[in-house]
Amino acid sequence: MSAQETLIYTNAEFEKSAAKLSQCPTDIIREVAFAGRSNAGKSSALNTLTANKKLARTSKTPGRTQLINFFRLGESKLALVDLPGYGYAKVPVDKKNEWQKELETYLNRRQALCGLVLLMDIRHPLKDFDNAMLDWAAEAGMPVHILLTKSDKLKRGPAKTTLLKVKKAVADLGDLVTVQTFSSHNREGLGDLQSKLTQWLDAPFIAQE
Ligand SMILES: Nc1nc2c(ncn2[C@@H]2O[C@H](COP(=O)(O)OP(=O)(O)O)[C@@H](O)[C@H]2O)c(=O)[nH]1
Ligand SMILES: [Mg+2]
Fold it and tell me: Residue 162: is its pLDDT beyond 50?
């Protein structure tokens, strides 16, 4: 995809679900993964971004939420990835550990991964697993864009206060981590999300030896 072309997220189409790294599509050169605790608003955000109500199912069907779901952008070699929601209470402990291991393998080894969108309900930010993801990203040098979701649930003042609080909490990670408020209900912050994704996905591709 040339730098002149604007990425169109409404062209995203479901490609496949992978249970592990080896099942991930091999011809994707760059992808952005969406992660967040169960119920953070991940499916809704993906549906809003792609203007496709059916893209990522908003239901919490355990079978599907444990898979790494790939959505290719049109005919390109770029993709959006819906990661298994963590903190899903109904998953048995041993099963949970199994897919958490696969998730870790994906995060540590997936070459195409160029950024992580980390979604947190604006009313419950920076829970344990969010902090674990941020620690991993800092260690891996992986850029993270935090979406404080369901911003429509708070008045402007409290939303701003939370935004500043979260920005302050991640300030020591520098440019690696950015933060914004977002609402799938009124599309607040959609333009900022699109800009960040385009910045990550549309950067010139440098062939790896
Ligand atoms: N008010 C409000 N509710 C939302 C928003 N985004 C998601 N929700 C609700 O939060 C719940 C979980 O959303 P979902 O997208 O399925 O979360 P996921 O588990 O992270 O994929 C659903 O009941 C959604 O309708 C939002 O922007 N505003
Ligand atoms: Mg979901």
Answer: yes
